[in-house]
Amino acid sequence: MSAAWWLSLMGAALLIAACATPPPTRQPHPVAEPRRVQKAAPAAETEPVDGPPVGVEIDLEKIPEPVPRAEPRSRYGNHSPYTVHGRTYHVLESAKGYVERGLASWYGTKFHGRPTSSFEPYDMFQYTAAHRTLPLPTYARVTNLENGASVVVRINDRGPFKPDRIIDLSYVAALRLGIVARGTAMVEVRALDPEEAEPGPVGSSRSLQGSALFVQVGAFLERENARRARNRLQEAGLSGVRLTRVRANGRTFWRVRLGPFREAAEAARVLAEVRRLGFPAAQMLRSST
Prior knowledge:
Blueprint: H1 3-20, E1 82-84, E2 87-89, E3 99-107, E4 128-130, E5 138-144, E6 150-157, E7 165-170, H2 171-177, E8 185-191, E9 212-220, H3 223-235, E10 241-248, E11 251-261, H4 264-276, E12 283-287
């Protein structure tokens, strides 16, 4: 055999061997699993607790009640109907003639400064309130049917949305009515028409001219409560205390008044004394009876 033939034979054998041997499998570099970083759960936001202001002295004598006046409807808060918690409410076309009795509650620090439904900031130090269906704004007189205390409020918010309550009062309105400690009380809500005169405190545009001057302590549903109020005033040395049975709106009230007085200055002095004795809702009135 020639050398050329032998080299040719060896090359063919190597070629066959190369074709018969599978190429090595290329193993990929292992891919590291992404590191799972356990994120700390976000700290739960503590919902502020509602309640009265802490460390704040309230002088109700320096907070004037709102005087009813004609106002246009608020741009916000009067959409009708609206739905909250699955219940639908219809805003009344007018507040005229509206009278309602039921349970009142109040709201304070949790909402102070936040926008109301009318987008006015809630001020717990003003006589305001929230109502589900009265137009915003509406002026109303709210009377505590358990102690006779009453106050005029300007309704500029929606609520309360608990079915057993009819009105949510600002903190000072609740303080004036004597319901802060208990949280709720049975009240009468009576819408006020700015075009109609309403007997009010002496010196207001609603006073009845030419009538007698009195200090009204309250109008009580329970006669015994009225008697206790009368006795307390008499024991304090105040004279001219009257307890009178009054029938109004289908209900009987027991009204406690002092007077009549000839001079407003004398009535004001007695009013201050009555409030000092624990009747903050007492007020000076002109009345024909």
